[in-house]
Each structure stands twice: as C-alpha cells, then as structure tokens.
Amino acid sequence: METTRVLIADDIAGTREDIKRLLYFEEDIKVVGEAADGEEALRLTETLQPDVVLMDINMPRMDGIQATELISMQFPEVAVVIISIQGEQEYLRKAMAAGARDYLVKPFNSSELAETIRRAGAFHKKRQVHFSGGQVAGAPPQPARIPGKVVTLFSTKGGVGRTTLACNLAVALAQGTGQKVVLVDLDLAGGDAAVLLNMPTKGTVTEVIQEPDYTDPSLLESYLAPHFSGINALLSPADPEQAETVTGAQVTAILQTLKKSYDYVVVDTCAYLNEVVVGTLEAADQVLVLVTQDLPALKHARLNIDILERLNFHNKIKLVLNKTRPDVLKPSELEKSLNFSLWHAVPDEEKIVLPSINRGMPFVLAEAGSAISQSIFELAGLLSRGEEEAAGKGRIVPESHADYRERKSLLGKFFKTSAKAVSLR
User: Fold this and answer.
1) Rounded-to-integer distance, Cα 231 and Cα 86, Å
2) Which keywords belong to this entry (predicted)?
C-alpha cells in the first residue's frame, strides 16, 4: 500500500490536532509535518516533500492563498487542498486560481478528508509521471489501442432531454459493453450532469485548461471524477462565469485526447450554437440530433440538420426522437417534414425519469427493466456496433434482463397502423 504524505498548515494548533485525529486510523495517509503560517508551509514543503498540503486560508505572515500560489509554482508535483471555514464562491475561485487541487469547508468528517487526500495524492503521482516523462514504477507498458468514438448529443432547443439522455446513455454503454466510457459535460454555463449523477463538481473543464499541458492523457485523467456505475466524468464548472474561458480549440483537443484512452466519449452540449459546440461537433464521430414531437423542436431539428450539413458533417448525423408519445405527431410525419430518417426513438416515461433525476440515480440502473431503459440500451447497441451491423444482431441489454433480447423495436411498439407494428429504419 502506497502512503500519501501530508503536511498540515493551519495557525490554530487545536485544528491541526483535530485533523491528525481524523486521519489516525487511515493506514495509507501519514502526517509528516505541521506549519503555523504560509511561510512555514512553504519551507516545510521544500524540506519534507509531502504529496499533499492541507492549507488553511486565514493565517498570519503569509495567508494560504499566497502560499498555495508559491507552492504550485515552485513545487508543481505537490497537490494543495484548501481547508477553510470560508465556503463562498469568491474564496473558491481564488484558491483554484492559485493552483489548489481541491477545497474542503470546515467542519468535515474523517471520510471526506481522507477521500480528498487520496484523490489529491493520486493526482500528485500522475503529475510525477507527467513531469518525468515516464511511467509509474512497476506499471506494465500500455499497448497501443484503437481510438474510441466521440458521441455528441446536440440540439439548439432546450427541454429535449439532452443531459438526461447523455447520462443514461453513458452508463448504458459502460454496463452493456464493459468498455471504458467517459461523460463530458460541455454545457459550461449551466450543465446538470453532476446533479443527475449525484456527483460533486470537482475536476471540471475549466480547471483542466488551466494546466499548460492539459492534453497530456495522464494529466487529463487526474481531473476525471469516477461514478459508481463504472463511468468517469469531466464536469462543467460550478460558476457559469468560468465558461467564457474555454475555447472551441481547447474542447476539440480535450476530446481527441480522451479518445486515446476511452472507448466511448459521450458529450452533452448546451442549447445554443457557440464556439465550444462547434469544436465539439468537429471532434465528434457521431452526432445525435435530438427532436421531440412538438413544432418548436421540429423547427430546431431542421435547423440543426442544416447546420451540420453546412459544416460538412452530414455523415455524422443520427436523428433521435426523444420523449416519444403515440398520441401526437407520428414518426412518418416527422421524417417527412425533416426529410431525414429517424435512427432511434426513446419513449416518454415521466414517472420513471423524474424520480431518477431527483434521486441522482440513472434510470438505466434503478429501472433497468423499463421500456425507456431498454430503449437506451438499444441505442447503446446501435452506437457500439454501427447501424448496419446492429441490424442483423441482438441488442445490448443488461445481463440480468436477457429476456428483453427478443423484444420488438420501440418504434414498432409505440406506433401502430392497422394493429400492425410500424418499424422505422
């Protein structure tokens, strides 16, 4: 078991003792020193070479923000975690701008503290690999791999279910294929992937681009947040103002880098066209254009398809009908209006989707046997095999629901003519 070495910097001796007590039973974490102010923290960082510095903000002589900035510049392999009673966004922004890896608001419990230290320590070790230009000692060489596939969900119409579909699709791909999947929330000014997955907003796109070599795979990996379903996620910033710092070129570079390490990169986008979205579309292998059965959504879908064709992305377009209901605009009418064939349809099951969102639990896990979940697994199957190949083979389904393999397509189930199923291709 590798040990993470920790330096505690806090001007209150009682607080330092409390932190040591919280970490007493953590066998893989060792407190190697204590500092009462920022200047002492800087000196001890040089002499003790800790993996992680727990840094208070309000300290005499040199405060924690200034000390963090100096440590980040002079000892870039050391991860700094800010610990403070100040939970305001302004302090968080200053800490992250100074180079802090993470931020804990007092009071915190032992599990929160230990988990944050371990995460920061892992980041430290990956940065060591990055700066040394080598591999972790004892790690086997990584074989060359085929680049993964970037799947972007796109619509300039709000309310079509992009984020819900993106989160559940990413989980379904991971569960159904057993391959590596990363979800990227590029709705930078208002992304909700963290809420839908019940994940803390730590390790965001805006933090990544502050790194000089943010396209280094090992460095980028350290910013990804793990989800219990098996996927990793690169989340949007908590502060919408930070969205303005991200460019389309940076997004394209990040997605191309993730393709080197992941089999599927599922990307959520915002409900308008900007430089970041164009960069995302550029990097995408397939673009799922979402539409629902209402005239405003139809108008936007027509516009979205036109935009993609003008950008010469015609071969990337897959039209997906979301929130499908049998009592409104029929798929054949929708296809005729758009002059574009539907690729897949997802049923409208609000009684399953809304509780799933409120619990922060993807419905493909909580309600794996439902029609909407099976539709998402079916969509994952189309993406994993390609449309032509998938047409002659079975669907992706969760292993415990193999009885759904022979189920008729959802389009045939939800839209019937003369009591016979209508299958759309």
Assistant:
1) 32
2) Phosphoprotein
